[in-house]
Design a protein that fits this description.
Strand content of chain A: under 5%
Largest sheet of chain B: none
Order of helices and strands of chain B: HHH
Distance between the termini of chain A: 84 Å
Order of helices and strands of chain A: HHHHHH
CATH topology of chain B: Helix Hairpins
Shape of chain B: elongated
Subunit structure (chain B): NDH-1 is composed of 14 different subunits. Subunits NuoA, H, J, K, L, M, N constitute the membrane sector of the complex.
Family (chain B): Belongs to the complex I subunit 4L family.
Radius of gyration of chain A: 26 Å
Keywords (chain B): Cell membrane, Membrane, NAD, Quinone, Translocase, Transmembrane, Transmembrane helix, Transport, Ubiquinone
Helix content of chain B: over 70%
Distance between the termini of chain B: 49 Å
Oligomer: heterodimer
Structural class of chain A: mainly alpha
CATH architecture of chain B: Orthogonal Bundle
Subcellular location (chain B): Cell membrane; Membrane
InterPro entries (chain B): NADH_UbQ_OxRdtase_chain4L/K, NUOK/Mnh_C1-like
Number of helices of chain A: 6
Number of helices of chain B: 3
Number of domains of chain B: 1
Number of strands of chain A: 0
Strand content of chain B: under 5%
């Protein structure tokens, strides 16, 4: 067993054990950091699998994402510090059976499939190839992902803003005038509806 | 580090993620389960790319698409959690029963 194998098994153990501990820890903040640990271990395995760009990008993206997640944990959720025991589950036995069945089924499928063995050439310029692919033949797919992310940003702002979905977005607010001390630009809030009158003239 | 071992690790991550997504009551913990499943999918895609495709760049492209799906999942998920909390003061799945018949 070479050093690569040892490293792979160690990283796999970290990824799986921390992934399991996510759902077994009492603190939701700790859970998000355990998930981060799992993601970093998977990212390092991906780097070992000759895909350095994807691996490093995974690590960077997941670090930022888990920081956001930890923030949400503190903002919203009960028991963020893990001072009390927390076990908030439903249909627990069914979930365990489903998880074990998924793992067992996938493992059987993996062990009984003969995959074509065409490994990537260690000297191949994989990052360069990926760049050419992204901005060449598959540019439309890449751009579609970009537009999807833009739509996601708009959707998340609409969903999480205080008004928007549940009323006029500009209700009760006054846009600045086009000239100093001039009339506010754009649509005026309904008179008497919002109760906010800031006219001083 | 054979292909089968990489895929089995990915299968384990998918199994744990499925358990989490099905069992957790809190929305955020549920989303962690979804992320863990996508994590396993990412590892499986890269494992297959590195061992069966001879380095064709489309495999890495699929991995980038999975990462975009992860980002969309998290952003829309948190926005929905915020909207539901604002509307119903709810942060566990048991509080949402309007779509139950």
């Amino acid at each position: 067993m070479g050093l690569t194998d040892l490293l792979f098994f160690a990283l796999s153990a970290v990824a799986i054990v921390s992934g399991w501990r996510v759902f077994a820890t009492d603190s939701m903040v700790r859970a998000s950091f355990l998930l981060l640990l799992s993601f970093v271990a998977v990212g390092l395995i991906i780097v070992m699998l000759a895909a350095p760009y994807i691996g490093v990008a995974t690590i960077f993206m997941m670090t930022v994402e888990m920081m956001v997640m930890a923030l949400f944990m503190v903002m919203f959720m009960m028991n963020p510090a893990g001072l009390n025991p927390m076990m908030m589950v439903h249909q627990h036995r069914f979930s365990i059976v489903a998880g074990v069945l998924a793992f067992a089924g996938l493992t059987v499928a993996i062990l009984f499939t003969s995959f074509p063995g065409i490994p990537v050439d260690p000297a191949a310029p994989v990052v360069h190839d990926l760049g050419i692919e992204l901005l060449g033949p598959s540019m439309l797919i890449f751009e579609t992902a970009g537009v999807t992310l833009l739509a996601t940003m708009i959707g998340s702002v609409i969903l999480s803003s205080r008004s928007g979905r549940f009323g006029l977005a500009d209700q009760g607010s006054r846009p600045p005038g086009l000239e100093p001390d001039g009339e506010p630009a754009g649509r005026q809030p309904e008179q008497g509806g919002g109760g906010h009158h800031h006219h001083h003239h | 580090m054979t292909l089968a071992s990489v895929l089995i690790v990915a299968a384990a991550l998918i199994g744990i993620g499925l358990y989490g997504a099905l069992s957790q009551q809190s929305f955020v913990m549920l989303m962690m389960g979804l992320e863990l499943m996508l994590n396993g999918g990412l590892l499986a895609v890269i494992g297959l790319w590195a061992n069966t495709m001879g380095g064709a760049p489309e495999g890495q492209l699929l991995a980038i698409i999975i990462m975009a799906v992860m980002a969309v999942d998290m952003a829309i998920g948190f926005a929905l959690v915020t909207a539901v909390y604002r509307k119903r003061q709810a942060d566990v799945t048991e509080s949402l029963t309007t779509m139950k018949h």
